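Q: Here's a chain of 300 amino acids. Please give me its 3D structure as tokens.
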Amino acid sequence: MNNPINFTAGLLAVAATMVTLTAAPKPNVIIVFNDDMGYRDLGCFGAPKIKTPRVDKMATEGMKFTDFYVASPVCSASRASLLTGCYHNRVGVSGVFFPNKGHTGLAPKHVTMAEVLKTVGYKTKAVGKWHLGDEKEFLPTNQGFDSYFGIPYSNDMTPAESMAYSKDCLFREGFTPEKLLEGFKNKKTFRRNFKDKVPLMRDEQCVEFPADQRTITKRFASDRQTFAKGTRVQPECGAELLSLISLEFAMFEKGRATQHHLKRGYSCWSFLGRNKLSHRSLSNSLLLAHQKIEKLVYAT
């Protein structure tokens, strides 16, 4: 596709639904993007043990999709496609990014949906897992998002040596800046000692290390609600916002991350269908999404 503003079919589905349900010329857009969640990990899709009443209510009152194509079965690549509307290889994201593994991330030269929506007055925020580069150049605040609150990569990884810490950063579990520096020096024991110890970031700095993941879901939800309320009361903002909520589907027990699945799923929207994609089907879906979303964004 020659036009740089190509969006995924998933975004089309969400946006088209909102257009139908609201009279506003430019609706609010909220995207929830979940990692490691299987098709049957939601009550509305038959989960026998996991209770998801709020999502089930959304499925009952809105639209429920039983088939979905995703561009990649892994974290970073699927996010790159979601945000740019392009195949991930076209924007230089072939797989998963890891902290301390070189200067890697989604290059800011690529246009994201956040950058496009900002051109027509949207206020934008990313909450949760980012995983498109943990260095300043690649963070959400340099990719079209006004602000960011979350963990910059998977919640079972390690701290990044290049991380910037705020002056009032909350260091937990006996960690200090000095202890971190000492840990980076010992490459043999670093991963064993720091696995699952990840930073919680506000915009471009770490504000808590390691992030208390026992309470992280509630804090993400609270932060997004604060953003939405703050946007509404500012006259120049209207009621237009883009909020990307990205989560790692995991439970924490005794401070350790344990992936929890009833049926293994890959990459994933909340309403994930197939993980085997047809390139022709995906190309057609992206083209249709581009045409529809362009009408939404640039409607007069």
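Q: Can you summarize the key feature?
A: The domain at 9-153+217-297 is CATH 3.40.720.10 (Alkaline Phosphatase, subunit A).
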